[in-house]
């Protein structure tokens, strides 16, 4: 039987509200949006469609919390992060199930992401206690130059839907370790994972206002603009498309907000004649099919040297035949659904346009068209 939300051991990890100032809240407008399972299109939850007003409330809560949070010791922040890390590991199965239901990736991959996401909390817990300053040799012998590192303030953390757990902890872990308070904006397609993380962060003892979570699907531009334009937000971190990254950079430039961007990938996969065939095929399967090809480092084109081409292509087709496409919560499935209908249309277009030019595409492609949501 496919696993569902009823299989959660901790039901409170499934939250359907935003999180501001240590309170679970609805949107000020009362508007909502739906989160659906991409494998079945079944409704998972209805969440608040938050807007600029909600965003400013979250920023204000984070700003007020920063006044005291910045004074906490590095050791105290490290202890909170380690406790959060431990809780994530304790509830790995529940976090993985929520992730698979809203994102679609197979449970095995989702469990791997929980471990990956948790590792950032462990890492930054250690880094918190290594926030060293420097002693700089002065030009004037009568002077002494010492630098110290201080937290910036409120940090906005914008995460994508393809790794909704790991991209939150990687950003938020760093911010909290440094002494910054945070406002999270998870992707509207996958907000449930971030909300589950917030439950565990709260349980770990992080102070009120140090984490705030905004949920939105249709007001993304409005919420993003509010985060860029609010002067209380001192740092913004975004992982996503190059197009959106450029827009955020433009908006943040108005008040010279510090900005970290991790944008769309462009990843060729190259196989030379002297490559070990099995190693090359294994590497390609990981590079191309992980998370149904929805990663920033997914191989988007393959260059194979002539001498190994036929052997590589034949071996790859045989391995692709072993892949099992389906609902990620079903045991044995290795490729889940694409998250967006537009991604399906694009993939179908690529396949249809390649039948006349690629010798091996027919056998692989026909295996995957079992459902409009899967490819």
From TrEMBL:
Oxidoreductase is among the record's keywords: yes
Gene Ontology cellular-component annotations: cytoplasm
PROSITE patterns with a match to the protein in the record: ALDEHYDE_DEHYDR_GLU
A GO molecular function held by the record: succinate-semialdehyde dehydrogenase (NAD+) activity
Occurrences of domain Aldehyde dehydrogenase (ranges): 24-352
Family recorded in the similarity comment: Belongs to the aldehyde dehydrogenase family.
PANTHER family for this protein: SUCCINATE-SEMIALDEHYDE DEHYDROGENASE, MITOCHONDRIAL
Protein name, as recorded: Aldehyde dehydrogenase domain-containing protein
């Amino acid at each position: 039987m496919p696993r569902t939300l009823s299989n959660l051991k901790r039901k409170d990890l499934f939250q359907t509200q935003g999180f501001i100032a240590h309170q679970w809240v609805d949107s000020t407008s009362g508007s909502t949006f739906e989160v659906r399972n991409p494998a079945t299109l079944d409704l998972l939850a209805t969440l608040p469609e938050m807007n600029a007003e909600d965003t400013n409330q979250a920023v204000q809560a984070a700003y007020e919390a920063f006044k005291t949070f910045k004074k906490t010791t590095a050791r105290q922040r490290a202890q909170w992060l380690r406790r959060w890390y431990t809780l994530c590991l304790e509830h790995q199965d529940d976090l993985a199930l929520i992730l698979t239901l809203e994102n679609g990736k197979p449970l095995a991959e989702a469990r791997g992401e929980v471990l990956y996401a948790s590792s950032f909390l462990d890492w930054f817990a250690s880094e918190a206690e290594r926030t060293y300053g420097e002693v700089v040799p002065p030009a004037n012998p009568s002077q002494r130059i010492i630098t110290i590192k201080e937290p910036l303030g409120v940090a906005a953390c914008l995460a994508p839907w393809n790794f909704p757990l790991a991209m939150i902890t990687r950003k938020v872990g760093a911010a909290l370790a440094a002494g910054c308070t945070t406002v999270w904006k998870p992707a509207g397609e996958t907000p449930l994972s971030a909300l589950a993380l917030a439950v565990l962060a709260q349980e770990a003892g992080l102070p009120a206002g140090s984490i705030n979570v905004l949920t939105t699907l249709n007001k993304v531009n409005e919420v993003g603009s509010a985060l860029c334009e609010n002067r209380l937000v001192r740092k913004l971190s975004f992982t996503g498309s190059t197009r959106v990254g450029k827009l955020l950079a433009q908006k943040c430039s108005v008040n010279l907000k510090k900005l970290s961007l991790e944008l769309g990938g462009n990843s060729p996969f190259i196989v030379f004649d002297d490559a070990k065939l099995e190693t090359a095929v294994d590497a390609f399967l990981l590079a191309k099919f992980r998370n149904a090809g929805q990663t920033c480092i997914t191989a988007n084109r393959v260059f194979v040297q002539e001498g190994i081409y036929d052997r590589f292509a034949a071996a790859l087709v045989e391995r692709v035949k072993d892949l099992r496409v389906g609902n990620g919560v079903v045991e044995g499935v290795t490729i889940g659904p694409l998250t967006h209908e537009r991604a399906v249309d694009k993939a179908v277009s690529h396949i249809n346009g390649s039948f006349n030019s690629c010798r091996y595409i027919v056998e692989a492609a026909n295996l995957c068209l079992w459902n409009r949501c899967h490819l």
